[in-house]
Design brief:
The complex is a heterodimer.
Chain A (H helix, E strand, L loop, with lengths): L1 E6 L1 H7 L3 E5 L7 H9 L3 H6 L7 E4 L2 E3 L10 E5 L6
Parallel strand pairs in A: 1-5
Antiparallel strand pairs in A: 1-2, 3-4, 3-5
Chain B lengths: L1 E5 L5 H9 L7 E8 L5 E5 L1 H18 L2 E9 L1 E3 L4 E9 L2 H18 L2 E7 L2 E4 L4 H8 L7
Classes of the chains: A alpha+beta, B alpha+beta.
């Protein structure tokens, strides 16, 4: 299945991309599994999504935990902890 | 409820006046203005999500306190020291609800609304790191309200 992946702020700069359509292998159907999958895309991704990295996730514009399910067509956004206000 | 995510500056007194005059039952209007300290910055946000996330926070405040109306304005883009960043105005019948809801909305904004600050210092630009103190400030509201 295909999902749209977005990156913001420091993460966007680290990865050099803001948005991408990604075809997911079978079995990648949670946020946690997607994070693991992204780590296989090269050194920058490996680092950005390491266990130590503080990354937050929103699925279809709602903040979620790593166990959240994802389905075809979802918009999955990854970003550092927010610093507005 | 008025929620706006905008580049432009805002006028505190105009926003307070607008809420105060909404209803003759309004007896208290509490407001908070966040201001850029010391360093110029760029504020990035997640346009499709930002306004909806702020509306959710305001709804949460309304479920906890007797809030009659509320205005939240958050700026993005390039900001200079002393520029206004964020405005929260809460109208209520009495000050207790207005103060509490205003503080609650700010604490939740800090940890839940998708904004990121990049500071432009002499030695270079850097992304501001989230503070644990902001998480603690949001956590303390667990279970509080009327």
């Amino acid at each position: 299945m295909k999902v749209k992946v977005l990156f913001f702020a420091g993460l966007r700069e680290q990865l050099g991309t803001a948005a991408e359509e990604i075809e997911l292998p079978a079995g990648v159907n949670t946020v946690g599994a997607l994070r693991l999958h992204l780590r296989s895309r090269g050194e920058a991704y490996e680092k950005a999504f390491s266990e130590k990295a503080l990354v937050r996730t929103a699925v279809n514009q709602d903040m979620v935990q790593p166990g959240a399910r994802i389905k075809a067509g979802d918009e999955v956004a990854f970003f550092p902890p927010v610093t507005g206000g | 409820m008025k929620v706006s995510v905008q580049r432009e500056d805002f006028d505190l007194s105009a926003e307070v006046k607008a809420l105060a005059q909404k209803s003759q039952n309004v007896g208290a209007v509490a407001s908070f203005v966040g201001v850029v300290r010391e360093v110029a910055m760029t504020l990035e946000h997640y346009p499709q999500m930002t306004e909806a996330s702020i509306r959710k926070i305001v709804e949460e405040a309304k479920s906890r306190w007797a809030v009659m109306d509320c205005t939240v304005i958050h700026r993005y883009g390039e900001l200079q020291p002393s520029d206004q960043i964020v405005l929260v105005v809460v109208a209520s019948a009495h000050r207790g609800d207005a103060f509490a809801a205003c503080e609650f909305i700010m604490d939740y904004l800090k940890t839940r609304a998708p904004f990121w600050k990049k500071e432009h210092r002499a030695e270079g630009a850097r992304w501001v790191e989230a503070r644990a103190a902001d998480d603690d400030a949001a956590e303390r509201w667990a279970g509080k309200g009327r």
